[in-house]
Amino acid sequence: MNDPIRGIGVGTGSAAGPVARMAPVPALPAPRPVTDPAAETAAVRTALAAVVTDLEERAARVTGPGFDVLTAQALMASDPLLADEATGLVERGTDGAHALTAAFDGFRAALLTAGGHFAERAADLDDLRDRAVAHLLGLPVPGLPDPGHPYVLVAEDLAPADTALLDPARVLALVTVRGGPTSHTAILAKALGVPAVVGCAGAVGLADGRYVLVHGADGVVEPDPSPEALERAAERDRRRRELSAAVRGPGRTADGHPVALLVNLGAPHELAGAAGADAEGVGLFRTEFLFLDRAEAPGLAEQAAAYREVFAAFAGRRVVVRTLDAGADKPLPFATAADEENPALGVRGLRTAARDPRLLETQLAAIAEAARTGGAQVWVMAPMVSVPREAAEFAARVRAHGLPLAGAMIEVPAAALRADRLAQVCDFFSIGTNDLAQYTFAADRTLGSLADLLDPWQPALLTLIATAARAAAEHGRPVSVCGEAAADPDLALVLVGLGITSLSAAPSALPEVRAALAAHTLAHCRELAELALHADDAADARAKVRSRTAGSR
Questions:
Q1: Which residue in the list 184, 215, 520, 524 is annotated as catalytic?
Q2: How confident is the model at residue 335 (pLDDT cuts 50, 70, 90)?
Q3: Where is pLDDT greater, at 342 or 177?
Q4: What band does 327 get if pLDDT is binned at 50, 70 and 90?
């Protein structure tokens, strides 16, 4: 069968090469009696320690997202509760391999129950489990293949510990059976600039050595591609690179309509790269990095120092600060409740300020103090705004601290539907497409089986974006998109046609978005937006728009 295989595309570009599959996980042996509980317990703890050491050594060899991922993995494997659970099972008669498996599986079930970002990390525990069991049994640890030549890596799913160490010179592209657009594989593939297709169920049939062509933008894998298909893909990539390199500076459509191109920023190690990018500022400054993994909130001085560093790096440019987005996938002991049955629909984002107003007040005071000397144009916005009253109260608090611009995230359908009222009390909007899609389609963003519903090309989602953009325009308010949708050059054209005034994405995505804008007039963007809005579904919208933009790429 040479029919194309479809999944979720990650990034842009294409790559071709022979398939090499991930090494299999160790087979779990039959249960055996425990004759020496003390020795078995020691072996379990030694295996876990070996996993932690390996991950820490890998983390020391990388920077950026890879370092963050591996460090988080090491913390998970070193959790004393995990070791206590496994050794407790050993003491009750379970052999080490099965005790480790049961302990990890129990933690995995808890993450799936928690939902949100936690559920996305459940697959990480599978990898940690397999590594620990392999160490315990003295078997090779599952990992990347080494066929001796560049290859397209195919796997059921890709562990963060392996993805972080991928060499783009050897791994030409990634294809995984599972995973979604917010998985570790997707995040790190974008950072590495490697084309990837995730959630690709048909990849199970791709055998080692089979030649495939992977299209990162389209989410398509072509088995046994023809020479003509390979030539077309190579020519398209060459043209894409040339066009991206030819356009620099502020974002503009072909007829000069301004569209600010901004970067997303969420961790200190990203600051240098973000500040050095050809961007007009920061469209989304996530502040959670200051609050995570600690028992109590950071004080005013600590926060102000961190914000001042960012503002100084972007002196003269816009920095849009999102206040603390705790809850759901980011629970904090000092801000959220641990017993919510459905945290994604619970006290999160701006709602945490009602629980403890001091959190928001301290953060706003720190932002204001840093803004006075940082030199940036500071805008402040609240996450998870649902009703106009919340937006009005937030805006009043922001202005009380001397900060002139207060905005709201549009992540809840209710906010998009009442955007006209929100625009009366806010200075700007920023649309988070990932959460807005999740709540619009009642589809957990962690479930690969629902990835088609979470596709940002869904016409219903675009309709909500258009509603918010229209309300913003009527009141003279700027409106940005800061979700993954902003990184897709074709979708960026649609968003501008819907009325979006700025786009915020990873620095690596901006050159292609800038080039796409420069190749199309605002009138054409509006035509493309109409095509997408009236399409039957996401696939139809994408196909119709790309049929009209193919000649410009």
A1: 184
A2: low
A3: 177
A4: low
pLDDT attached to residue 349: 75
Q: Which residues belong to CATH 3.20.20.60 in the chain?
A: 250-552
User: Please, which contacts does 394-401 make with residues 24 or more away whose CB atoms are closer than 8 Å?
Assistant: 394/350, 394/353, 395/425, 395/426, 395/427, 397/360, 397/361, 397/364, 398/364, 401/364, 401/365, 401/367, 401/368
Q: Hunting for tokens 């657009």 — which residue is that?
A: 181
- Distance between CA atoms of residues 252 and 433, nearest Å: 22
**Percent of the chain's residues with pLDDT above 70:** 90
Measured CA to CA, the distance from residue 385 to residue 121 in angstroms comes to 26
Residue 384, SS3 per DSSP = coil
Tell me which architecture the domain covering 250-552 has in CATH: Alpha-Beta Barrel (3.20)
Question: Do 503 and 261 meet the contact criterion of CB atoms below 8 Å apart?
Answer: yes
Beta strands in 255-393, from DSSP E residues, in sequence order: 260-265, 281-286, 318-322, 377-382
- Banded model confidence at residue 443, pLDDT cuts 50, 70, 90: confident
Kindly give the pairing relationship between strand 220-223 and strand 260-265: unpaired
Q: Which of 98, 200, 215, 482 is catalytic?
A: 482
Q: Which CATH superfamily is domain 37-137 in?
A: PtsI, HPr-binding domain (1.10.274.10)
Report the side by side order of strands in the sheet with 171-176.
Answer: 5-6, 220-223, 211-215, 14-21, 151-155, 171-176, 196-198, 8-10
Catalytic residue flag (residue 184): yes
**CATH 3.40.50.720 assigned to 5-23+143-228:** no
Q: Cα(first)–Cα(last) distance of the chain, in Å? A: 30
User: Which residue type sits at 376?
Assistant: A
Residue 553 has a pLDDT of: 57
Residue ranges in 65-167 assigned as alpha helix (H): 65-77, 80-91, 96-114, 116-120, 122-137, 160-163
Continuous segment of H or E residues that includes residue 57: helix 37-59
Cα–Cα distances in angstroms (integers) from residue 56 to residues 43, 194, 215, 266, 307, in the given order:
20, 24, 33, 22, 29
Q: Indicate if the pLDDT at residue 116 is higher than 60.
A: no
Considering the chain, tell me which residue range(s) the CATH 1.10.274.10 domain(s) occupy. 37-137
